[in-house]
Amino acid sequence: MIGRFFGFLWGLARVFPAAGLQGIRFGSGASVFYSFLFFFFLVVAVVLVLLGFDLEQVDAWLDRNADTFDLIGTTIWKTMLAGIMALCALVIAAPFIDRKPKDDAPQNLNAKERRKDEAQKQSWFSIGCATLVALAIGYVCYVGIFLL
Fold first, then answer.
1. CB neighbours (10 Å) of residue 144?
2. Is residue 18 very low, low, confident or very high in pLDDT (cuts 50, 70, 90)?
């Protein structure tokens, strides 16, 4: 039901995209998103007024609790970044965990074993690329957690 309601608001926003916003092309995805946000908060405001709230009092309450909302949002954001950084650490450590030591390859490998050995050599390239990508993403998460 909530999904249908949001779908209705999105369809309404696509019919009436935001106009007159500087730097946003009429009918673009950004203008439709702004219209969606407008309609969403319009519905929230109407519901609050129907429930007997004064919008000025609601605004004052939001201003009083802004620091708490900022703390909650920052905590959620940094927890998500920490989870992503943990996954990056797992990707980086994966090639070194639970690897069997490779014996010297015997000279008399059959064709099937030779193909398997070649596939293992080729997989090191993909492991290296995944490690570099994980390092880059992990660094961005580190900066987001500890330096911002």
1. 16
2. confident
